[in-house]
Automatic annotation (TrEMBL):
InterPro entries per record: NDK-like_dom, NDK-like_dom_sf, Nucleoside_diP_kinase, Nucleoside_diP_kinase_AS
Keyword field contains Iron-sulfur: no
Taxonomic source organism: Schizosaccharomyces cryophilus (strain OY26 / ATCC MYA-4695 / CBS 11777 / NBRC 106824 / NRRL Y48691) (Fission yeast)
The protein's name: Nucleoside diphosphate kinase
Enzyme class, broadest EC rank: transferase
Length: 151
């Protein structure tokens, strides 16, 4: 079985709005395994690396300012196809284009307040996990329910 990992960050808007619990619950209920979690106010250097692909775009400064404006809940989640499925659970980048039932579709309205980040590929997940977490912060553990989630 593939033990793919993704990086999720509950953004400052969702932390302020009390949405950490509901977002984590969706991933737990789906069957994914939480490997790492921390509250962190990311500094500019971390955010510039995290959003490197958007450097120079008109929204970059606003995005970095917003993401560093308060605590972010950074997480590593593991499971089969978790990168693609995690993005599907998040919904479209613009919450107004996100279907109801998705995280952004249920909790967001504005593009610049879209609640939660999720890695967009296996390669970017590896890059982001390595950027946000030390190896010692990532927990390796077994779950007794594994056989009830995967055949
Ligand atoms: P994501 O991977 O779905 O988060 O989307 P992107 O990687 O394209 O963009 C990163 C983040 O930048 C998004 O989640 C939005 O919060 C923000 N963003 C993207 N495009 C725009 C834009 O055109 N205007 C503004 N204000 N923010 C944007
Ligand atoms: Mg992205």
């Amino acid at each position: 079985m593939s033990q793919e990992q993704t990086f999720l960050a509950i953004k400052p808007d969702a932390v302020q709005r009390g949405l950490i619990g509901p977002i984590i619950t969706r991933f737990e209920r789906r069957g994914y395994k939480l490997r790492a979690i921390k509250l962190i106010v990311p500094d500019r250097s971390l955010l510039e690396k995290h959003y490197d692909e958007h450097k120079g775009k008109p929204f970059f400064e606003k995005l970095v300012g917003f993401m560093g404006s308060g605590p972010v809940c950074a997480m590593v989640w593991e499971g089969k196809d978790v990168v693609k499925t995690g993005r599907a659970m998040l919904g479209a980048t613009n919450p107004l284009n996100s279907a109801p039932g998705t995280i952004r579709g249920d909790y967001g309205i504005d593009l610049g307040r879209n609640v939660c980040h999720g890695s967009d590929s296996v390669d970017s997940a590896k890059y982001e996990i390595n950027l946000w977490f030390q190896p010692t912060e990532i927990q390796q553990y077994d779950r007794a329910i594994e056989g009830w989630i995967y055949e």
